[in-house]
Here is the input.
Amino acid sequence: MKYCSRCHSYHNDSQNFCPTCGYELVPVMQTPPPPPGYDRYDYGDNAFSAAGPEGKSRGVAALLAILLGGLGVHYFYLGKIGAGLVTILLTIVTCSLWDIITLIQGILMFCMTNREFEEKYVRNPAFFPLF
Ligand SMILES: [Zn+2]
Here is the structure.
C-alpha cells in the first residue's frame, strides 16, 4: 500500500506516482500485528509508581493494602469492587484481624515485580485474588 501525501489517497504498491496528482507516493508504514503473547506493558521499568496498561500502579495498590487494607480500598482501586466488599465484610467478621492479611498482601505487592502484580491482581479475572 502506498500513500499520496498531497491528495491523501491510497494506491497499490505497483505505482510510484499518484495517478491523480502525479505526486510521489510513499509506502505506508503498516504496524505489524503484535506477536502472540505480546505484552503492551514495558516491564523493564519495575518502579513502584509505574502504571501498567490498565493504569494501576503496584506502589499505590501496595500502600492502600497496607494502610487501608481492612476497608478493601486496594481492591476498589484495582476495580475489584466485589472483592473490596468481601474484604470489608471479612474485616467486620474477624474483628479487624483481616487487616493482617491485607498487610501481608501489601508487603507482598511491594516485593513482587510489576509483571507478577499485573498477572495476580490486575488481569486476573478471579473474583477475589488473595496472594
Ligand atoms: Zn495524489
User: Anything to note?
Assistant: The radius of gyration is 24 Å.
